[in-house]
Structure formats: C-alpha cells, structure tokens
Specification:
single chain, 288 residues, alpha+beta, Pdz3 Domain, 3 domains, five-stranded antiparallel sheet, three-stranded mixed sheet, 10 helices, 8 strands, 16% strand
Length: 288
C-alpha cells in the first residue's frame, strides 16, 4: 500500500467523520431553531414579562451547535425555559437530573424578605410539612449551600437586572429540587437552626389516597397524577372497594399539572354508561 493511497484514504475518512459531526450539529441546531420559532410565534406574555426573546436566541443558538446527544439537548431546552420564568412552561420529557416541575413538584412556598428567606406556605401532608418545617421559619441553607448563589442557575440570562417574579421563579425551582437527589434544608425557629430532609410525597401513595369519612361517604384525593396512565388501574381498584358507599368525594385540589385525555375518560367512564358532550368534543379534537 503506497503513501499516496494512505493519504487519500485518510482524507476520505476525515471528510466522513467531519460530515457526520456536522450532521449531528445541524440536527440539533434545526431543532433549536424550530423550538425557538414555535415559542416566538405562540407565547403570549413576552411583552408583559419584558422578555427579550431575540437575545435568548443569541445566547443559546451557539450552544445548540455544540450539542452531541439528546440528553444534552434536553438540558439546553430546560435552561431556555428558565428564560420564560414561568412554571407553567415545560417539556413533556425529563432526565433523572432534571428539576421537579413547579408548581406540581413544590411542597413549600418561600419568599425573600430583605436578605432573609421565609417559609410562607406549605402543602399539608406533603414532604416539607411531614419533615417538620413550619410557616414562618427562616431558611438559611439548601443542600448545604447558601441560597443566593444557587438561584443564579434559574435566573434568566437575557436580563441584566432581575425583578421579583424572576427571583420567585428561581426560589420555587431551587426548593422543588431534582428527581435524582434528596433535599436538605436548614431552617431556624426562635434562633435555633435545625436540619430537615423533606421527601417528595412523604409516606403517602404517590398516585392518590383514599379513606372512609362516615357510614355513607368515601373520599379519594388524587396526588397530581392525572397525567399518569398508572392511575387508571389504581383508581378502578379503589373505586370498586368503595362501591358500597352512597357518596364519593373526588378531591382534585392537588392536581396543578392537569392530566391527559386517556386518564380523564377512564375516570369519567366510571360515572356514566354513554358518551356525553364533553367527552365527544374532546374525542373529536384528538381525531382532528
């Protein structure tokens, strides 16, 4: 094999490798541009929130060109959603390292007052409440670190100055925690610091819990799981076990994430033997 052939072979291989790399980058760049354009065309609150969406593109488009796999791309899109500082905007997928969604993943509400972080509200019966945290406590550390520095991850990069809503979004995201790690919160009450370890849903059924209120009334509370198809079988079993009670209360106060049509139709189907207008309308929309 002569040197001229080896040189030609090496050049051909280099072109193939570079071509593959360029293709991968182009794919994610195209996906990024489609994502950015879709929000640009449909998001209704740019003006109200003073979001410089064009600057967001300038910041993140170069990063999209360096993406090499789907996990990196998901992380990039999650960072971009922070620019909207709106917990109701989220992806339909996540990684183990992803932040829990807000408000559905939140079990406490903390506000910054001066240089202090105070607990203003708790979701009764959830992790923070069950761990012993109380309204009025001052939080000083999260996962062993000062809070201010950790908020920077969630504050929008397009802004030079941050308003109260931006800070509140960052606080909510930080204290919701991630899917792959436990939370450690140091809070003080009457000047005494105490360490708490709240878990995601405490010791309750993650999908729902049920109980009998009296001889004629039963109760089912759904724990923000209307988007999980696993709820269908679990709900059916609970419903059958409570069938003898005249009244059934279904509590949806802990379902901030909403749900999907499959779960909704399955639950509604236990209360009717025919299609009703709402179900027909929903079915038609899915068909079209």
């Amino acid at each position: 094999m002569n040197n001229k052939f080896l040189t030609k072979f090496a050049l051909t291989l280099l072109i193939i490798v570079n071509g593959y790399s360029a293709f991968a980058q182009t794919k994610y760049q195209k996906d990024f541009n489609g994502f950015w354009s879709d929000i640009n065309d449909n998001y209704a609150y740019f003006e109200e929130q003073n979001i410089d969406w064009k600057k967001v593109k300038e910041i993140y488009e170069p990063q999209a060109g360096k993406i090499s796999n789907d996990n990196e791309f998901i992380q990039l899109l999650e960072n971009i959603f922070n620019e909207l500082y709106n917990g109701h905007s989220s992806l339909s997928t996540n990684l183990k390292t992803s932040n829990r969604l807000i408000p559905s993943g939140s079990d406490l509400y903390i506000e910054k007052s001066g240089n202090r972080y105070l607990i203003k509200d708790l979701r009764k019966g959830f992790g923070a409440d069950l761990a012993g945290l109380k309204i009025g406590m001052e939080v000083t550390l999260f996962n062993g670190k000062p809070i201010d520095e950790q908020l920077k991850k969630f504050l929008p990069k397009f802004a030079d100055q941050y308003n109260q809503k931006m800070y509140q979004y960052a606080i909510d995201m930080l204290f919701a925690g991630t899917h792959d790690s436990n939370r450690e919160i140091v809070a003080t009450e009457n000047g005494k610091p105490t360490t708490f370890h709240p878990v995601s849903y405490g010791n309750r059924n993650e999908l729902f819990y049920s109980k009998v209120l009296n001889e004629s009334t039963a109760y089912i509370k759904i724990n923000n799981s209307l988007g999980s198809n696993n709820l269908i079988t679990a709900f059916d079993q609970a419903f059958d076990s409570l069938f003898q009670y005249k009244n059934l209360i279904i509590d949806l106060t802990e379902t901030p994430s909403g749900g999907n049509s499959t779960v909704a139709r399955a639950i509604m189907g236990r209360f009717t033997d025919k299609l009703l207008p709402f179900q027909v309308h929903e079915f038609d929309e899915r068909e079209y």
